[in-house]
Amino acid sequence: MYPQKSFKKFSIYWFSQTLSEIGGAVNIFAITIWLTQVMYNDPSDRTMLAFAIGANTVVYNAAYVLSQPLVGIWTDRLDRKKILLFCNYVGGLLTLILFFLMFTETLKSLIILLIYSALLGILRSFIISSFTASYIMIVPEKHLSRANGMTQTSFSLSKVIAPTIATFLISIPAFMDTYIISFQGEEQAISLAILLDGVTFIISAVILGFLYIPSPSENNKKLRKKSIGFIKEMKSGLSYFNRPLLWLLGLIAVGNLLLSVVTTLYPLVLKYSLNGELQSNGLDFDTGLAIITTLSSIGGLCGGLVMTLFGGLKKNRIYGVIIPLILAGVFEISFGFSDNIYISGIIGGLIFFMLPITTAHSSTIWQLVTPKEVQGRVFSVRRFVAQITLPLNGVLAGWIGSSFDPAKAITILGVIFTVLSVTQLFNRQLLSVENSKVTNQNLSLQKRDNYDGSI
């Protein structure tokens, strides 16, 4: 039996991971500054700089997304607390090594940075998988939407405050050089932001050490002793996707593609559609991009806070998925018509205000209809399918940017997604998703392999 669920315990659990999430966002920002200001600072390195920033992003995201199916299996097999402790301590150790290399100015190879990013992407995959699969065993059902909203708030908050924290930390050596100790070069200053991430990893692990985090394996000891193999266990996870869940997953995946492309096209919209507006307001490109991205991030943060404070719908949660997506599509349409930088930023904020609401309700539905014993693998496959479309937005954005007016293209994509979302209000299978409790549909697979039912 699992211990009594407690929202208070979850809040401590959430706080520990929020610290790590903020540290990770500061780390990513600082690495970008290091690549720009240290590694490839010379104007002649422009091509290599673009490659390095792109490669670092691709390697991290690819490691995170592609590892999801295998990570989910381990999440169901092993003790989730041990997974979280291991990943946080190893992440802290790797980040402290990176800090040491930067501080001593001995980090001279892009390959080392890419290996670090790949390892960090895999560790984050384990952390997110263990974290989200534990909700249903920690949080009372009435608070699930609120808990998912808190997680979305963490993601948005980290993006909003990370640049400020990183900039502050990087500026500290200027003060310390005068009054306390001497720092040599910008690289040592940047390393302080990296150090913060390493410290938050360790603090998160220490907090987790005092918490009880249940695992399905505790109630099923056969889990650790018997396996049907990774490939068959991955198929096992896929077999839990009934038609209503597949509709839900497909809608979210398409939303990830057609809505996230807006942020990818921000620079092109500013450069080609809002350039005159920027000049008339005396703003340069960098300031305009900062305005629009900051307002968008604030919108996402506010959406997460709304879910945290009000907890979302307690029934018919599918409407908490569809209606915000419809509104996001409408706002995407209006974004393409905007000719004012501030209005564009506000509209971008409204788009991203809707996404945490959608995600929180969607996550709650999955947690309620999926057996807790297989949530690790099922949720990992779900994230893999939903997020594999995210890299495609770069391809879509590149094609749009080279062939069409970016603002008009965004409006067309908004129309397509709005129509698609509205039609889902008449999709009976999708609307019944909360009543489609998932059963063990892979029973025949298990019998063929003499599998005894333990997951």
From TrEMBL:
Lineage, opening ranks: Bacteria, Bacillati, Bacillota, Bacilli, Bacillales
Membrane-traversing stretches: 12-36, 48-71, 83-104, 110-139, 160-183, 189-213, 245-269, 289-311, 318-335, 341-360, 381-401, 407-427
Highest taxon of source: Bacteria
Pfam family, one: MFS_1
A GO MF label: transmembrane transporter activity
Swiss-Prot/TrEMBL keywords: Cell membrane, Membrane, Transmembrane, Transmembrane helix, Transport
Signal sequence, start to end: none
Name the UniProt record assigns to this protein: Na+/melibiose symporter
